[in-house]
Amino acid sequence: MRLVAEVWRALGCDIVASGGVTGGVDVLAYVACGACCVQIGAGNLVEPGCAERILKEIAAEMHRHGVQRISELRGFAFE
Question: Could you tell me the CA-to-CA distances from 79 to 27, 39, 72 in Å, in that order?
């Protein structure tokens, strides 16, 4: 995650993040560090078909914080 943050801060380019994603909070953390896409590899190994659960978790967190679009969170860690 640190590398995603460093690259996004230095270049501001689109980044596809991966590594250790098993829940919605992991996805949101990567997005907050600047990722525009997040791969769910590890989660699928542990729990095939976990994408539906992860999407629900993302939606719940966004609703809890009053966020309408996930793009609002991109790079949020640096604001």
Answer: 18, 24, 11
* 5 vs 61: CA distance, rounded Å: 21
61 burial type by CB count under 10 A (0-12 exposed, 13-18 middle, 19+ buried):
middle
Q: What is the DSSP letter of 20?
A: S
For the stretch 15-50, pLDDT in tens is 999 999 999 999 999 999 999 999 998 888 889 999
Q: Could you give the count of Cα atoms lying within 13 Å of 10 in the half-sphere of its Cβ?
A: 7
